[in-house]
């Protein structure tokens, strides 16, 4: 599993091809997602503490929950869009293949544990997210047997926008139910301005 994670971090297309074809790697892909979600949660939790405005536990749990929701929704929408709307002539994939590929594509997100660092933390968070995006494009290209990287980019972008919209709605619902302080702890942000308007 570690070798495959390193291959995904290096953006090695053969790694994604390998996990796509190994039905036994589904649990490994889920383990990667959980590890990345924990790293994201730890980064958010520590960020809440370092920022002085929140609870470590709420930040940790929020990061884990948001990470798992993000991956599950992104993988599902990627499969749906990639096998229907933007299906290529050679496209052949099932849920397991795409779940394994997109699961390992989350590996660069391990660096999100460093998001709590003052000044550079947000840069690391953005860089890790972009890295994950690129890994997703490669995973989608390999898992959906696309000959065009641009088709894979289209699938990933459309799915990303839809998932982002879902998470905004979820955040607004949580904001309405629990208030800005809870959501700030969850995300490591400062939404008190939004609540006061």
In short:
The chain is mainly alpha-helical. It is 74% helix and 0% strand.
Structure characterization notes:
The protein has 197 residues and is mainly α. It has helices at residues 2-9, 13-20, 26-50, 56-83, 95-104, 121-143, 149-178, 180-187, 192-196. Helix 2 (13-20) crosses helix 6 (121-143), helix 3 packs across helix 4 and helix 3 (26-50) crosses helix 5. The radius of gyration is 17 Å and the shape is globular. Residues 191-197 have low confidence and may be disordered.
Write the layout of secondary structure elements.
Layout: H1 2-9, H2 13-20, H3 26-50, H4 56-83, H5 95-104, H6 121-143, H7 149-178, H8 180-187, H9 192-196
Helix pairs in contact: 1-2, 2-5, 2-6, 3-4, 3-5, 4-5, 4-7, 4-8, 5-6, 6-7, 7-8
Given helix and strand content, the structural type is mainly alpha
**What global shape is seen?**
globular
Work out the radius of gyration.
17 Å
- Note the run of SSEs as H and E: HHHHHHHHH
SS summary, helix count? 9
Could you tell me the number of beta strands? Answer: 0
Low-confidence stretches: 191-197
On the 0-100 scale, what is the average pLDDT? Answer: 83
Instruction: Give a quick account of the main beta sheet: strands, pairing sense, barrel closure.
Output: none
Number of domains: 1
Distance between the termini: 48 Å
Helix content: over 70%
Proportion of β residues?
Answer: under 5%
């Amino acid at each position: 599993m570690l070798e495959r994670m390193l291959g995904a971090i290096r953006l090695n297309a053969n790694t994604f091809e390998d996990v796509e074809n190994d039905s036994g790697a589904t649990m490994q892909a889920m383990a990667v997602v959980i590890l990345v979600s924990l790293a994201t949660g730890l980064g958010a939790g520590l960020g809440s503490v370092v920022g002085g405005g929140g609870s470590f536990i709420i930040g940790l749990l929020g990061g884990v929950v948001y990470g798992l929701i993000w991956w599950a929704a992104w993988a599902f929408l990627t499969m749906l869009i990639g096998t229907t709307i933007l299906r290529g002539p050679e496209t052949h994939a099932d849920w397991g293949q795409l779940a394994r590929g997109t699961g390992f594509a989350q590996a660069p997100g391990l660096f999100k544990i460093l998001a709590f660092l003052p000044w550079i933390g947000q840069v690391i968070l953005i860089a890790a997210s972009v890295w994950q995006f690129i890994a997703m494009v490669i995973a989608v290209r390999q898992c959906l047997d696309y000959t065009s990287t641009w088709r894979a980019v289209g699938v990933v972008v459309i799915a990303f926008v839809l998932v982002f919209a879902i998470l905004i709605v979820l955040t607004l619902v949580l904001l309405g139910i629990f208030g800005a302080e809870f959501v700030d702890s969850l995300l490591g942000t400062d939404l008190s301005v939004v609540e006061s308007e």
